[in-house]
Design brief:
This protein is 63% helix and 11% strand. It is α/β, with parallel strands linked by helices. The protein folds into 2 domains: 3-314, ABC transporter type 1, transmembrane domain (ABC transporter transmembrane region fold); 334-571, Rossmann fold. It has a 6-stranded mixed β-sheet with strand order 6-7-8-3-9-10, sandwiched between helices. The chain has a 4-stranded antiparallel β-sheet with strand order 2-1-4-5, covered by helices on one side. A hairpin with a 2-residue loop joins β9 (537-542) and β10 (545-550). α8 packs across α13 (297-314) and α17 crosses α19. It is elongated and about 120 Å long. The two termini are 62 Å apart.
């Protein structure tokens, strides 16, 4: 990202707090000006107090003056820091809100191609780099620049001949900064990438730690994590050493100038002790701000790289929602017309997929793993867009629906039964804040979750933990079913939604689902064919194509794909 573009994007977040930033900057300028007055005051103290004509009154005035300048300078500096820190934290919050808002609007394809650790790194590490530039680095730069400018003017005012040596210093410092810039940028990119990989590895091992243990992969994962940390250490070492080289070379250049000033002023210049002390103190006070100015390139390069990552995410196109049609109610007729879909050019998932589902009909998709069953559902819910063809609900192309309106008609439960780190009640009413406690209880009873919930200490307020870790697989699945039942949508999709239930519970839940038949359009995806026997229509999908459609008895009579799969399951028992 170019510096100009970075400033433009950063300013869009800062403009709301421009008053606070300007005030903080002004206070920092005042603080810098007060600090810059110290050399002149110390010089006058030496010339006026350390002589035979010094008086107590003069000493008191100078002492009070020195104290007030340093005290007020410190107060202004603290006030400036407080204002800039507030702005920095607000910018971090605003950017993270925008990033999160974008994340939940991105199409599913984005997450298919990104590791969660990389995304977490953008929200944590990268944003911090930008925020540092937004406030603290900016104030350090401003303070250093103002201090150097005031002291430089002061030095030329005191002795312009001696100060000419300083002119040589600045182009040399600029040359050092130019040489180190590209190296620092390269190392910053590597640090950013490695941080993403580290976050990804941590996420995988936290979520899948039990799998790592059961398969004895601890050593392999440890070695992988060690390699990532080693690479991070190496890249950060290169980055820090480049920054140190930049700083220390400039320090050497400054020390040469200081030494020349000492020699020339003592041999060739007619200066009093106070004048020399004032001049040399001002010169010495320039060392730190010059070092800060020369070292500004390091955090700037980090911020530019982070800005490319963060703003690149915010600029990604959201999932397509060009549809404007909204309905208050639908019958639930679904028609797939010549649907073709592929995740990439080399892998076709669905081919010429055509199917009509009547309102209130229960339709089951069956087939071998990877045949495209779940993809059909992903297309219906517009998590993916078909490569060609059309899907309609009640005669309206689903792409013409407002996407939020479309999804309000669909309740969905998948095999993973994802739960959020919240209470059971909040998980059941997810996205449905207007439903009553009675509806939540009724949904829990329908999914056969009520009894085990009622036996928990906190009942519906029980915190399930991250992804429902405090519940069993069957309990998680029943909560997920309750969530779908509570939504009471006209289209119900169950993708292996009872796979974790015991046989009796599965039959009881299935009985409730059968009661819904006729009132809701139900789509079942199942590997266990015992759960689809009573479907109005069974659709067998083989390698993305529909090969058979019919009732259970009809398909058995055909003795085709469904017959073979049914026999393989039941005869194996």
């Amino acid at each position: 990202m170019q510096f100009k573009e970075f400033l433009k994007r950063l300013f869009s977040y800062l403009k709301e707090h421009l008053g606070k930033l300007i005030l903080s900057s002004f206070l920092m300028i005042v603080a810098s000006a007060m600090e810059s007055a110290v050399p002149e005051l110390t010089g006058r103290i030496v010339d006026n107090l350390f002589t035979d004509n010094a008086t107590r009154e003069t000493a008191f005035i100078f002492s009070i003056g020195l104290f007030l300048i340093m005290f007020l300078g410190a107060l202004f500096s603290i006030a400036s820091f407080a204002g800039s820190t507030w702005v920095s934290n607000k910018v971090i919050m605003d950017i993270r809100v925008d990033m999160f808002s974008k994340l939940i609007q991105l199409p599913k394809t984005y997450f298919d191609n990104k590791a969660s650790g990389d995304i977490l790194s953008k929200l944590t590490y990268d944003v911090e780099q930008i925020a540092a530039t937004a406030s603290s680095v900016w104030l350090d730069l401003l303070k250093s620049f103002v201090t150097v400018l005031i002291l430089l003017v002061y030095l030329f005012y005191k002795n312009w001949q001696l100060s000419l040596f300083l002119i040589v210093l600045f182009p040399l410092i600029s040359l050092v900064v130019f040489i180190t810039s590209s190296r620092m940028k390269k190392s910053s990119i590597e640090v950013q990438k490695t941080m993403g990989s580290i976050n990804s590895s941590l996420t995988e091992n936290i979520n899948g730690g039990h799998i790592v243990k059961l398969y004895g992969a601890q050593d392999k994962e440890r070695a992988k994590f060690f390699d990532l940390l080693k690479n991070l250490r190496q890249q950060k070492f290169k980055l820090e050493m480049t920054g140190a080289f930049n700083t220390d070379i400039n320090k050497i250049l400054i020390s040469i100038v200081l030494s020349l000033v000492v020699y020339i002023s003592s041999v060739h210049m007619n200066m009093t002790a106070g004048e020399f002390l004032a001049y040399f103190t001002a010169l010495a006070m320039m060392v730190k701000p010059i070092k800060n100015l020369s070292g500004f390139n390091k955090p700037l390069q980090k911020a530019l790289i982070a800005g490319e990552s963060v703003f690149g995410l915010i600029d990604l196109p959201s999932e397509n929602n060009n549809g404007i049609q909204e309905k208050s109610i639908i019958r639930g007729e679904i028609i797939f017309s010549k649907i073709n879909f592929s995740y990439d050019k080399n892998k076709t998932v669905l081919t010429d997929f055509s199917l009509k589902i009547q309102p209130g009909e229960t339709v089951a998709f069956v087939g071998m793993t990877g045949s495209g069953k779940s993809t059909v559902v992903d297309l219906l819910t517009r998590l993916y867009e078909p490569s060609s063809g059309q899907i309609t609900i009640d005669g309206t192309d689903i792409s013409d629906f407002d996407i939020f309106n479309l999804r309000s008609f669909i309740a969905y439960v998948d095999q993973s039964a994802l739960l959020f780190n919240n209470s059971i009640k909040e998980n059941i009413k997810l996205g449905q804040d207007n439903i009553s406690d009675k509806q939540i209880v009724d949904a829990a009873k329908a999914s056969l979750a009520y009894d085990f919930i009622n036996n928990l200490d906190d009942k519906f307020d029980f915190e399930v933990g991250e992804n429902g870790v405090r519940l069993s697989g069957g309990q998680r699945q029943r909560i997920a079913l309750a969530r779908a039942f509570a939504k009471n949508a006209p289209i119900l999709i169950l993708d292996e939604a009872t796979s974790a239930l015991d046989s009796k519970t599965e039959k009881d839940v299935q009985a409730f689902i059968n009661k819904l038949s006729g009132n809701k359009t139900i789509i079942l995806i199942a590997h266990r064919l015992s759960t689809v026997i009573f479907a109005d229509k069974i659709v067998f999908i083989n390698k993305g194509r529909i090969t058979e459609v019919g009732k259970h008895s009809e398909l058995l009579d055909k003795k085709g794909d469904y017959y073979n799969l049914f026999n393989s399951q039941f005869n194996s028992k």
